[in-house]
C-alpha cells in the first residue's frame, strides 16, 4: 500500500517506505562514481573501453547522471575493490577520476577541479632523468600518470615532461626543492596548457571572467546604484517640465 502524501508548507511531501529504501540501498551498495568528459567520448564508447579495462566478473553498467558524473553500477565487492584500487584508469585519453558513491549522492555538489596537465621540469640535469626520479618529482604536484616518450628516450635535454593529475584548486608552485646528497637545489617547473578553471567556483569548465555567479553578483550590486543615479535625473526632468 502506497503512503498518503502530506504537506510541507506550500509543497507536497511523501514518506518513503522503509523497506523500499532498504532495498534501494542494498542494491546499490557496491556502486562507485566517476567523472568523464562525455563531449570528448560518447558514453557507449566509454562503456566498452571501461569493461575492456576492468574485465568485471559480475554486472557492470555506467550511467551518466549529469555534471560529468557517471554512476558505476556493480553487483559484487570484488569488482568494486578491483576498480577502486586499480587507479589510474585512462579512457579515451582522459583520466577516469573515481569517487566513492554514498546515499544522497548529488552530482550538483561534486565540484571537479582536477585536470591532466603536462608539467615541464626546466633545465633538469640529465642525471635526474630516471623514471622513478621524474615520477617522484611529479608527485609533489599531484598524481603522476606517465612520462613523455621524448623524455624517456632523452631526445632533447631542454626539459623533462610528465603528465600529472593536478588539483587546480590548490596553489601551484613555480619551483620545487630537490634534496640531493651533495647539495640541495631549486628545480623550476612550468605547466602546459590547462583547462578553463574558475578560481571562484573551484571547478573546471569556465574562467573567472566567464563566471555566471560573479556576473550575477556584480549585477545585483550595480543595479541599486544605477537606480539611485536615475532618480535624481528623473526629478530634475520633472522639475523642468513643471516650470514650463
Commentary on this structure:
The chain is an alpha+beta fold and 244 residues long. The protein folds into 3 domains: 6-109, Alpha-Beta Plaits (2-Layer Sandwich), CATH 3.30.70.330; 114-204; 211-244. Helix content is 32%, strand content 29%. The chain has 6 helices and 14 strands. The chain has a 5-stranded antiparallel beta sheet. Strands 9-10-8-12-11 form a 5-stranded antiparallel beta sheet. Strands 1-2 form a two-stranded antiparallel sheet. β11 and β12 form a beta hairpin. The longest helix is centred in the C-terminal third of the chain and has 32 residues, at 212-243. It starts with 5 loop residues before the first strand and ends with a helix.
Structure characteristics:
DUF4283, 14 strands, single chain, At4g02000-like, DUF4283 domain-containing protein, 5-stranded antiparallel beta sheet, 3 domains, alpha+beta, 244 residues
Amino acid at each position: 500500500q502506497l503512503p498518503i502524501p502530506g504537506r510541507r508548507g506550500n509543497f507536497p511531501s511523501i514518506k518513503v517506505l522503509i523497506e523500499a529504501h532498504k532495498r534501494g540501498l542494498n542494491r546499490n551498495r557496491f556502486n562507485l562514481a566517476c567523472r568523464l568528459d562525455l563531449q570528448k567520448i560518447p558514453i557507449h564508447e566509454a562503456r566498452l573501453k571501461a569493461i575492456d579495462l576492468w574485465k568485471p566478473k559480475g554486472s557492470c553498467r555506467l550511467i551518466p547522471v549529469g555534471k560529468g558524473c557517471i554512476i558505476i553500477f556493480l553487483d559484487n565487492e570484488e569488482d568494486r575493490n578491483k576498480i577502486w584500487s586499480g587507479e589510474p584508469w585512462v579512457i579515451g585519453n582522459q583520466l577516469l577520476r573515481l569517487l566513492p558513491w554514498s546515499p544522497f549522492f548529488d552530482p550538483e555538489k561534486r565540484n571537479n577541479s582536477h585536470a591532466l596537465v603536462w608539467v615541464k621540469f626546466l633545465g633538469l640535469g640529465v642525471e635526474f632523468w630516471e623514471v622513478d626520479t621524474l615520477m617522484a618529482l611529479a608527485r609533489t604536484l599531484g598524481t603522476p600518470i606517465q612520462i613523455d616518450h621524448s623524455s624517456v628516450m632523452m631526445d632533447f635535454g631542454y626539459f623533462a615532461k610528465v603528465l600529472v593529475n593536478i588539483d587546480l584548486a590548490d596553489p601551484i608552485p613555480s619551483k620545487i626543492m630537490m634534496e640531493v646528497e651533495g647539495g640541495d637545489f631549486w628545480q623550476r617547473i612550468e605547466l602546459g596548457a590547462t583547462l578553463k578553471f574558475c578560481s571562484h567556483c573551484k571547478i573546471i569548465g569556465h574562467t573567472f571572467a566567464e563566471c555566471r555567479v560573479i556576473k550575477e553578483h556584480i549585477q545585483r550590486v550595480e543595479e541599486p546604484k544605477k537606480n539611485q543615479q536615475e532618480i535624481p535625473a528623473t526629478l530634475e526632468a520633472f522639475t523642468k517640465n513643471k516650470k514650463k
